[in-house]
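Quarterly update, task 2.4: calcium ion-bound model.
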Amino acid sequence: MMRNNHAVCCSEAELYSVIPSRWATRNLLLIALFLGAVSVFAREPVSGRFIRDWQICGPFPAANLLDPAVENEESLVAGFGRGAGGRPWKVLNAAADHVDFEAPEAFGLTNQVVAYAFAELESERDGDVILGLGSDDGAMAWWNGRQVLVHDVARGVKAGEDQVRLRMRQGRNTLLLKVFDAGGGWGFAADLRPAGAETWTWKVVPPKTTE
Ligand SMILES: [Ca+2]
């Protein structure tokens, strides 16, 4: 009997030879899907991490978030040996995603203040990213020198509460945050992730601690 590609079998013997084959195909597919899913979850996206390596400057007495605490605050660029408003930038390698400004290694307990945090990121290519920002209390953000967020609010830190789409460029990018504290806790959590399905690599540039 001539068969074409759509012919359906079979003798009984052929039937039993086909069933395991279909079973194997389906299960191999499921295994492949499972392994694919595992690899997606197991692959730590370099681009999705919270930023923990900062340079910070403060505290500056402040009645609110919106008034500038230093001259030209929007143009602040941190660096070893630099300062702002008479205070030096200092390196803060946070132990957790939630950066606690009231930790002893940061500024300690205080109220009615603002401080700045600065990070540099190096990307292997251009691409759109989402900045997730939680802050205690309100915060402003500048990306590559352009203001991208102002949220004057009394709140605790909740990661990703504010979300802003940004254009990351190949090479160096800068993120400057300003965080106000009216009272109670004081800090923030900032993360970046690709805006779409594509992922690529970037890294936080470790702040220099010597010339
Ligand atoms: Ca607070």
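Highlight for this quarter: The chain has two domains: 9-43, 46-204.
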